[in-house]
Write a structure and sequence with these properties.
- The structure holds two protein chains of two kinds.
- Helices cover about 35% and strands about 25% of the residues of chain A.
- The two termini of chain A are about 40 Å apart.
- Chain A has a six-stranded mixed β-sheet with strand order 7-8-9-4-10-11, with helices on both faces.
- Chain A is of the alpha/beta class.
- In chain A, helix 3 crosses helix 4 (about 125-135) and helix 4 crosses helix 5.
- Chain A has two domains: about 15-230, P-loop containing nucleotide triphosphate hydrolases (Rossmann fold); about 240-300, Alpha-Beta Plaits (2-Layer Sandwich), CATH 3.30.70.100.
- Chain B is mainly alpha-helical.
- Chain B has a two-stranded antiparallel sheet.
- In chain B, helix 5 packs antiparallel against helix 7, helix 7 crosses helix 9 (about 185-195) and helix 9 (about 185-195) crosses helix 10 (about 200-220).
- Bound molecules: adenosine-5'-triphosphate (ATP) and magnesium ion (MG).
Chain lengths: ~325, ~280
C-alpha cells in the first residue's frame, strides 16, 4: 500500500478521489466528489443525465484537469503517475470511438501499437482473443463504419480488454446492446471481477447494476449523494408498505391520515403502496382494521435500486444544469 | 497495492511510428491528394511539348524545359509550391490532432496511455513524411514526364555553365531536400493549429488560409526587407542550388528561419497539447 492513499474499512482502494471538483464556465459539473472504490469491487456509478459521471471519469483518467481535489488510481496519484497506472486500466469513455475506415481488428492493432508495454509478438493473439470475448470475431475484418451501434459498443469493450487489467472503468458499456449483449456484458463483468479486477461501471440500467454491483455511488447535479455497499445504500432507503385490499380508496385515506407519504394505488389490482415514514406494520394494520378496511395482505418491501435512485435524485425528467 | 513500473517493450516507438505512418498513407483521401500532385508536372510537360512557350513567359524555368527535361522538375516545384503543396500538407497537418479529437480516438490513445508529448512528436514525424512524399511526387512526376518528352541532358546552370547529367541529378536531389526543409515551418504551423480545435476542416482551412495570407504579404513590396522573415519567403529560393558556386551560407540562413518557425510553433503546439482538456 502506497503511503498517503486513503484507505477505509481496512481494504485498499482501487479508485479514491478526494473533494474532486470541476467547473465548466460557472457551472459546477462535478462538486466535491470523494469516490471510494475498494479493490475487487464492482462499483455501480449511477446518476441522471448530466449529473457528472463522464466528467468524473475523464478526470480519473487524466483527460481533463480537476479544479480541486486529488485522485489515486490503484494507489498512485493521477494524473501524475498516468504512465505507471494507465497500462493496468481499461476504459470505455462516453461510448466507443474508432477510425471509421479501418477494420475492427486494425483499430485494435492501432491501440495496441500505441501501448509501449504491449508485446508486439502477442498482439494478433490478444486482439483475436478480445474480439472473441465480445462476440465480434466474425466482424473482425469489417470496416468500423459498417458496424452497427451494438457492434461499435462491443469493439469499445474489446479495446478495454486488450491487456490484462487491474481496473476497468466502463462508462455505459451496455448502451445500444441487444438483450444478449447486455447479458454478455453482465457475465463479462462477473468473470472479470472473479479474476480479481476492480470494475467501475456507469449505467442507467439499474436492474443490471443491481445484479452485478457490490457497491454503488449515486451522483446528482455534480454531487455524490450516496455511496457504499449495495446493501448499505439500499438499507438507507425508506422501506415501502405493500397492502392488498379490495377497498383501495378508504385504505389510501387511512394511510395518509396516519402520516404515511407517497401513498399510491396499484393499477386496478387492489394494491396500495406507501412510504412507511417510521410506522410499523402492526400499527398500520391496526389503524386499517379499526377503520373497517379489509386487509387481505400486508408487508414491508425492500425498495428496488430504481425506487431508491428516483427518491434520491428526484422524479423530474428535465436535466439539471 | 503499489504498482510496479510496467516493462517497456523494445522497439515500441518504432511500432507507434509505423502505425501512424500507415494511418496517414493508407487513408484514401491522402492517397488521392498525392495522386493529384502528380498531375500539374505532367500537364505542364505536355502543354510545353504541344506548343513551346515564348521566351520569358510563364513560371520560373519554363523556358528551359524544351531543352532539358530536368527543368520540368524545377518548373513543377515553382508551380506547386504556392498553392497545391500547402493545400495537401495543410490537409494532413490540420487533420493530425484535430481529426482524432473529432472522432474521439484521441481520448482512447491518451488513456492507452500514449504520452502527449510523444504523440505530438510522432504526429509531427508522420506529417513531415507526408510532406516529403508530396514533394517527391511532384519531382518524380516532373522528372519522368521531362525525361520522356524532352530527355535528360547535361544541365545548363543559371550562370550559363554546363554540368554533367550526374551532377545535374545530384543538384536536383539537393533542390528536393532544400524544399522539404523549407516546408517544415508550414508543418509546424499546421500541427499547432490542429491542437487548437476539435474541427479538422477548420484546422485545415486555417492552415491553408494563413499560408496564403503570408504569401500575399510576401508579394507586397511596401513591406520591404521585413518580408524576409515570412516562412514562405524562401520557398522558391531553391534556384540557389542551380548556380555554379552554390552559396551555402544563404541556404543555411534560410533554413535557420524554418528552424525558428519550428521552435515557435512546435513549442506553442506542445504547450497547448500537453495541457489541453480532452472533452471530445
Ligand atoms: N466540454 C464541456 N463543456 C461544457 N460543459 C460540459 C462539458 N462536458 C460536460 N459538461 C456539462 O457537465 C455536466 C455533466 O456532464 P457529464 O457528461 O459528466 O454527465 P453524465 O453524468 O455523464 O451524463 P449522461 O448520463 O447523460 O452521460 C453537464 O451539465 C454537461 O452539460
Ligand atoms: Mg456520460
Amino acid at each position: 500500500m502506497t503511503q498517503g492513499v486513503p484507505d477505509i474499512g481496512g481494504g485498499a482502494l482501487a479508485v479514491a478521489s478526494e473533494g474532486l471538483t470541476r467547473r465548466f464556465g460557472h457551472q459546477v459539473a462535478v462538486d466535491q466528489v470523494s469516490l471510494r472504490v475498494p479493490v475487487g469491487a464492482v462499483y455501480g456509478f449511477l446518476g441522471p443525465n448530466g449529473s457528472g459521471k463522464t466528467t468524473t471519469i475523464r478526470m480519473l483518467l487524466g483527460l481533463i484537469s480537476a479544479h480541486e481535489g486529488s485522485i489515486h488510481l490503484l494507489g498512485s496519484a493521477m494524473p501524475r503517475s498516468a504512465a505507471l497506472v494507465l497500462p493496468s486500466v481499461g476504459a470505455l469513455i462516453e461510448g466507443p470511438a474508432f477510425h471509421p475506415y479501418l477494420t475492427g481488428a486494425d483499430n485494435l492493432r492501432r491501440l495496441d501499437a500505441a501501448d509501449r508495454t504491449a508485446n508486439p509478438h502477442s498482439s494478433s493473439e490478444r486482439i483475436a482473443e478480445s474480439l472473441s470475448r465480445v462476440g465480434l470475431s466474425a466482424a473482425a475484418s469489417k470496416r468500423y463504419r459498417q458496424y452497427s451501434l451494438g457492434m461499435k459498443q462491443r469493439l469499445g469493450i474489446a479495446a478495454a480488454l486488450l491487456q490484462p487489467r487491474k481496473l476497468l472503468i466502463l462508462d455505459e458499456p451496455t448502451n445500444g446492446l441487444d438483450p444478449q449483449g447486455t447479458r454478455e456484458v453482465r457475465h463479462l463483468i462477473r468473470s472479470l471481477a472473479a479474476d480479481g479486477a476492480t470494475i467501475l461501471v456507469s449505467s442507467h440500467l439499474l436492474a443490471e447494476v443491481e445484479q452485478v454491483a457490490t457497491h454503488v455511488g449515486i451522483m446528482s447535479a455534480g454531487r455524490l449523494i450516496s455511496q457504499g455497499t449495495l446493501t448499505e445504500v439500499l438499507a438507507g432507503a425508506e422501506p415501502r408498505l405493500l397492502l392488498f385490499t379490495n377497498a383501495t380508496g378508504p385504505a389510501q385515506h387511512v394511510l395518509s391520515r396516519l402520516g404515511l407519504s407517497d401513498v399510491l394505488a396499484g393499477l386496478g389490482k387492489g394494491t396500495v403502496t406507501a412510504n412507511m415514514c417510521g410506522h410499523g406494520v402492526d400499527e398500520i394494520t391496526r389503524a386499517l382494521v379499526n377503520a373497517d378496511v379489509p386487509v387481505l395482505g400486508i408487508s414491508q418491501t425492500r425498495p428496488a435500486l430504481e425506487d431508491l435512485f428516483v427518491s434520491l435524485t428526484g422524479e423530474g425528467f428535465d436535466v439539471a444544469s | 497495492m503499489s504498482l510496479v513500473e510496467p516493462a517497456t517493450q523494445p522497439g515500441h516507438l518504432g511500432r507507434l511510428i509505423r502505425s501512424e505512418l500507415a494511418l496517414v498513407f493508407r487513408r484514401r483521401r491522402n492517397q488521392a491528394l498525392l495522386a493529384v500532385l502528380a498531375g500539374p508536372p505532367a500537364l505542364i510537360g505536355i502543354a510545353v511539348k504541344v506548343s513551346a512557350p515564348p521566351p520569358g513567359a510563364g513560371p520560373d524555368f519554363l523556358g528551359q524545359v524544351t531543352g532539358n527535361g530536368l527543368f520540368l522538375v524545377y518548373t513543377a516545384l515553382s508551380v506547386c509550391l504556392p498553392l497545391f503543396l500547402p493545400l495537401a500538407i495543410g490537409v494532413v497537418a490540420g487533420d493530425s490532432i484535430a481529426g482524432e479529437a473529432n472522432i474521439g480516438t484521441l481520448r482512447y490513445l491518451l488513456t492507452v496511455p500514449v504520452g502527449r508529448g510523444r504523440l505530438l512528436a510522432v504526429k509531427a514525424l508522420a506529417v513531415l513524411a507526408y510532406s516529403a512524399a508530396a514533394l517527391a511526387m511532384v519531382a518524380v512526376s516532373g522528372l519522368i514526364t521531362g525525361a520522356i518528352l524532352f530527355g535528360i541532358h547535361p544541365l545548363t546552370l543559371l550562370s550559363g555553365d554546363t554540368v554533367s547529367v550526374g551532377s545535374g541529378v545530384l543538384r536536383t536531389l539537393g533542390v528536393i531536400a532544400y524544399v522539404t526543409f523549407a516546408l517544415t515551418g508550414l508543418v509546424a504551423l499546421g500541427l499547432f493549429i490542429s491542437t487548437l480545435t476539435e474541427g479538422p476542416i477548420a484546422a485545415m482551412a486555417a492552415t491553408v488560409a494563413v499560408t496564403i495570407i503570408v504569401e500575399v504579404l510576401d508579394a507586397v513590396p511596401q513591406l520591404g526587407a521585413s518580408r524576409q522573415w515570412l516562412f514562405t519567403h524562401n520557398w522558391l529560393g531553391f534556384g540557389e542550388l542551380l548556380r555554379l558556386q552554390i552559396n551555402f551560407g544563404t541556404l543555411l540562413t534560410w533554413s535557420a528561419l524554418q528552424l525558428g518557425y519550428i521552435a515557435i510553433f512546435g513549442s506553442l503546439a506542445w504547450a497547448r497539447f500537453t495541457t489541453k482538456d480532452i472533452t471530445s
